[in-house]
Design goal:
Layout: H1 2-19, E1 30-32, E2 47-49
Length: 50
């Protein structure tokens, strides 16, 4: 059972880090890409929402 809990925890931690990228968001969940935009598949200075 302990192994199962550890595996589930690692799954949640791993998937959260895969989709995250730096940058705060406004109230509506949107922001402008300022750095490393190509790495995240975004255009520099373009506003996008999550």
């Amino acid at each position: 059972m302990k192994t199962f809990i550890v595996l589930i925890s690692l799954l949640f931690i791993g998937t959260a880090s895969l989709s995250a990228h730096p940058g705060g968001t406004a109230k509506d969940g949107c922001h402008k890409c300022k750095t490393n935009c190509e790495k995240w598949g975004e255009v520099e200075g373009e506003r996008h929402c999550h």
